[in-house]
User: Fold this.
Amino acid sequence: MKLKTAGIHHITAFVYDAQRNVNFYVGVLGLRLIKKTVNFDAPEVYHLYFGDQIGTPGSVITFFPFNQGKRGRIGGGQVGSVTFAIPIGAISFWEDRLKNYDVTYQVIERFDEMYLCFQDPDGVQLELVERADGENSEWSVEGISTIHAIKGLGGAKLYSLSPNKTLGLLQEGLGLERIAEDSNWIRLSSYGALGNIIDLNRNSIERGMGGLGTVHHIAWRTQDQEEHLRWREKILSLGLQPTDQVDRQYFLALYFREPGGILFEISTDSPGFTVDEPIDQLGRNLKLPLWLEPHRNELEQLLPPINVRALEGDQT
Assistant:
């Protein structure tokens, strides 16, 4: 059976300040902080996960807040922007909400869809678009009901240093279907309901520079450990160099650089974010893998405190 990804599992970016990151993605955009952990490769840095009520694959965006980092530059070899899907009829609500929080946005059209395009406080490029696909999120916060709430990821825009090679990998490697194109973009789709639409810029773009305000990697979904191993063999057969399987506590991961320079990850849907805390407690406490537990006191001294709270505009 031919391997195909259902779409995006998660997207991870670099930002500056942890509390400001939480204020924006929870307080303004209404996502749930589903996991407060650390970068396993640099545990003095948080790894914050946001998504729907349980962190469904395809709903998740994650961040490394690093206040010692340098500003990046978005360009070739990167995810250019992250798209969030909202329910049909919700776009006017979001225009009002962004205005209420003084978030500057533009309205653009791409493939007969209207997008609200804006940046988070660190310069990560974001979009909101109405989509019928995917169930409404069950998570709501003060000021945002479930009929307006972000469903999850709608997809992403990719900027490649070699668009034709990236296109080939997306189609032949990951199994995405080419469904539309114009002079600037090629649109591809996976079979999933969320994180399923990829717009690849067909023009070669000047190389970007990783750092604050840029996406570090985009992760693609696979079902389980067995299928994950098959993906590794497939990537090797394409002449690319994947890492070994890495246990990220909530999923297994492997990483590779695709021919256009973008860092790709393959992540398993299981075991998910309730493996170490119940649904009603998600994101409340610092969670560490077992091998970091002996260093908890030290890490808690290094990491700044985070509070999840309603912002002033939503307080009643």
